[in-house]
Specification:
The chain has about 425 residues and is an alpha/beta fold. Helices cover about 70% and strands about 10% of the residues. A five-stranded mixed β-sheet has the order 1-4-5-6-7. Strands 2-3 form a two-stranded antiparallel sheet. It comes from Phenylobacterium glaciei.
Length: about 425
Amino acid sequence: MNSLLIFLVVALVAAAIGFTWALMERGRANRAEARAWELQDSASRLRLIEEQGGRNAALIQAEAVTAIADQVLKRADETFKGREELAQARLEAQLKPVAETLAKFQEQVVAVEKTRAEETGGLKAQISQLLLASTATQEEARKLSAALRRGAGVQGRWGEQTLRNVLEAAGLHNRYDFDEQTSTDTDEGRRRPDVTVRLPGGAVFVIDAKCSLNAFLDAQDATDDAIREACYVRHAQSVRAHMIGLSGKTYWDQFNQGSPDFVAMFIPGDSFLAAALDRMPELMTEAMDKRVLVVTPTTLFALCKAVVYGWRVEEQAANAQEISKLGRELYKRLSVMGGHAASVGKALEAAVGRYNSFVGSLETQVMTQARRFEDLQVDHEGKELPELGPVETGVRPLTKLAVDTADEGHPASAAVLTLKGG
């Protein structure tokens, strides 16, 4: 019983020891496993730490690189900005003259544009005035054409008025330098030229202002070229017929010998003569052969200017003769005045001689006796007798002019003044 108890006790003790041992082993195993896990966990942590450290190092390195890159970029940006500002300043400095030039150019362009606008406005106004003047001229031309168609009398009066205007424009004066509608008697009857122009020396030349313009006016109104050409041909024939008739009047034989041997046939428009010459080119040569000078306002103006110049030369010659006459008269009067001056000089010279004689007599005959009063101490109130000296300066002789009374060309009562050398 005791053995069983002991056995049970022993068994229990053994079981307790075994259980304890098992617990201990289990604990060691757990601790070993825990240690293994801890070791593994530590290794994992170490790996994680190492990985984390690598990541952190890489991150730090990346951050450092980023910071450096940022600084480099910032410095590069600052450098680039500074260079850009410097380049901008240099560019502005280089472009400043260009900008100023462009500004001046712009001002000039504005001024030119303003001037152009003003001139354009003025040109438009002038063109408008020119159009109005052209319209008025056309209207007047139509009125003139209508008036000239009324008959030969109207054409004649218009030609005479045009001729008078040309003569006055050239400087000739009516009833002084030229006469209108003067009458002259010839063997064939009384002639009445339209205008006679006076020339220097008493000469004259005749101007005839009559010319039919009906055919020319018909040509202007013609709508067909053939009809127009036929009218121009009739106009040329009319001019030639009038020229031949004017040549037959021989006006140049009715005046003095100094007059020109031609008569001027006045056509009151260059276009009238040009139309006739286009159809008859030999008209001018034939007219000169017949002593007829065909003139228009242009050529007659030049001819009358020559007449005015001749009158001016004639007037200057007359003035020169008058000046010569006045010079001779002045010379004569100067000669008389020179004679008077010579007489005055002689009189002055005689007066000086007489004065010197008077002074000499006074000194020798009177003053010697008067000074004896001083020796006798006569009271003379402090006044002394003055010293009277002779006049030594003579009268200046006439060296440039001398009197010559032997000249037979002047009256005996007048002294002649002759020039001397020097």
